[in-house]
Amino acid sequence: MMLTRLIVLLSGLVFSMLGFAQNNSGIDIKIKALKNQVNSTEDIWVKITLHNRSGETQKILKWYLPDAEGNIEDDIFSINRDGEAVMYLGRHYKRPAATDADYLELPDNKKITYTAELSSVYDFSTAGQYQIEFSAHNFALVTKNQNRGNAPDFSASLKSQNQTYILLTQARKGKPCNPRKEDCGGNGGGEDVSFTGSCSNSEQNAVLSALAAAKLMANDSVSYLNGSTGSRYTTWFGEYASSRWSKVGSNFDAIKDALDNKPKTFDCSCNQNYFAYVYPSQPYTVYLCRVFWQVPTTGTDSKAGTIIHEISHFNVVAGTDDIVYGQSGAKALAESNPSDAIKNADSHEYFAENTPSLD
């Protein structure tokens, strides 16, 4: 199978722990629709089979695989309807850096099969022919060579060798809100903050303090980006190019506007060992998870920074993705691929947090 080759440029000790290398995973992936024709009342399911042909055991991040019930936690499919890209409506998380427990071990020449339900997390509201492929991306998506006494190799992309096709014969009722064309917040403007998910008084106070700090960070970021570039920008977004500088500036303008002027809802019901998550097409609700309550209000990977990270995910704000997590990963991404760095949520968070302080 032909996989996208990613060249990561190493600088000093950056990513010495990760040991990224130019590398193909050796994992063959095939996808198949469980039904090739569905009506408006049926769920849309696909089967994905991963076959390790690399000659050694591989480890795959579980975040980018369906769970036992067919649920997915991230945008891991590329879907087109009659040639037009289909919007992902599911969650975007801020996660801690991956540990061994976050990987699935797949021995050499072994297969594993998953089924995934797609119609709950992608926009299948319009009748037509849908082309679907598995397409997952993360800098530490697949790792091997763990037992050779060397730094492990990583692959950043996994794609299926084939596409599968589904004909949706009827438009679905209850078309999802399209945030590129309408206000999906439903509440207009304003500075209101509301809480759901049984937030305690202390949790509400912690969120309000973090929100105030996030507004200061956003204001500072906008002021910086109205000036001249320096190491703060290049560390997190790479070498200067006017188009990328302009894009980052517009992203932070939108983040600042959302923090200052939009009605935000914070939900405290998440029990997962993550920082937080959002549905990018459903502004401006942020779901706060366990790690959020364990970190300080400001500083690296802080409560305030997490709010900026999550706000940036909304399609009506900056539409960022989670290409890599952690400061080391974000720095390496800025050096190797600035075009991806300006799309990465953690890169925006670390620029805003600015710890340690850079000029």
TrEMBL record:
EC number(s) from the headed UniProt entry: 3.4.24.-
Bilayer-crossing regions: none
GO biological process, one term: proteolysis
Keyword ATP-binding listed: no
Cofactors, names only: Zn(2+)
Top-level enzyme category: hydrolase
Annotated signal sequence range: 1-21
GO molecular function terms attached to this record: metal ion binding; metalloendopeptidase activity
Domain Lysine-specific metallo-endopeptidase intervals: 223-353
SUPFAM superfamilies attached to this UniProt entry: Metalloproteases ('zincins'), catalytic domain (SSF55486)
CDD domains in UniProt: M35_peptidyl-Lys (cd11306)
Any single Pfam family the record assigns to this protein: Aspzincin_M35
Keywords: Hydrolase, Metal-binding, Metalloprotease, Protease, Signal, Zinc
Keyword Electron transport carried by entry: no
Highest taxon listed in the record's lineage: Bacteria
UniProt family annotation: Belongs to the peptidase M35 family.
Protein's name according to its UniProt entry: M35 family metallo-endopeptidase
